[in-house]
Amino acid sequence: MNFETYFKISYGLYIVTTKSGNKLGGYIANTLFQVTATPPQFAISCNKDNYTTGLIKESGVFGFSVLSEKASPALIGNFGYKSGRDFDKFAGVNFFTGKTGSPIVTDSSVAWFECKVTNSYEVGTHVVFIGEVIDNGSIEEKTKSLTYNYYREVLKGYSPKNAPTYIEKANVEALFADQKKQLDVWQCQLCHYEYEEEKGDPITGIIAGTSFLDLPDDWTCPICGAGKMLFEKE
Ligand code: FE
Predict the structure, then answer these.
(1) What is the pLDDT of residue 80?
(2) Domains of the chain and any CATH numbers
(3) pLDDT band at 173, cuts 50/70/90?
(4) Distance 160 CA to ligand 1 centre (A)
(5) What is the rounded distance in angstroms from the CA atom of residue 57 to the CA atom of residue 21?
(6) For residues 23, 29, 33 and 38, what is the CA-based torsion angle, rounded to 10 degrees?
(7) How far is the CA of 144 from the centre of ligand 1 (A)?
(8) 138 phi and psi, to 5 degrees?
(9) How far is residue 158's CA from residue 148's CA, in Å, rounded to a whole number?
């Protein structure tokens, strides 16, 4: 299998949300696309283990926010690498309640949609939901949408394990092995972000060549917000 070919496919990045009863759910998705124009319908592919997937099945609705290129990595980490079963992902996040009742996140987003589920398909580990657009709006018209390539190449983010586009860590490492032969690399055990000493961390303003051990004690993973103690040397 040629894993590099999978990295040639680009996507956007979205926060998919829903509400069932008084339970709010949300997660970061890249597998979202428009499937029909009349009526406008979108498809999303959700892992069956995700808390939000069960809530969408119950509520029959979902919303999604289109993330901005300036999206906060901490927000992506909050919705992408933690489970809503364990804590409230919406605490401290700006959102409003849409017509479908879905919580629509407005932080770090350029536009939003909300949909009513019209169909769903069980596909192995995932469920594909089709949803017809009920309402939408724009938030920050002048900011570019975040693409998955930008997330991977500039923000150095990876797909979490539940993502349809997840690729095993060993295979990702094999792909980039040539590029990091002489680097001391520390990896976040939560989201797999890698701090490369030779490159530093432009996102948090750490200059190239800074040893991991010299990073400030309160430095946190730019993708998921994990503290230094959650990093391991490769
Ligand atoms: Fe992390």
Answers:
(1) 81
(2) 10-138 (2.30.110.10), 176-234 (2.20.28.10)
(3) low
(4) 10
(5) 12
(6) 10
(7) 24
(8) -110, 155
(9) 9
Residues across the chain: 234
Is the bond leading into 160 cis (omega within 30 degrees of zero)? no
- What is the residue-averaged pLDDT of the chain? 88
- Cβ atoms of 16 and 46 within 8 Å: the answer is yes
Cα(226) to centroid of ligand 1, in Å?
A: 5
158 Cβ neighbours under 8 A, 6+ residues apart: 152, 169, 172, 191, 192, 193
Q: Is the pTM of this model over 0.85?
A: no
- Chain CA centroid to CA 226, Å: 15
Which residue do the tokens 């597998």 mark? 31
Residue 181 has pLDDT above 50, yes or no: no
Give the dihedral sign, CA 144/148/154/158.
positive
Between the CA of 117 and the centroid of ligand 1 the distance, in Å, is 32
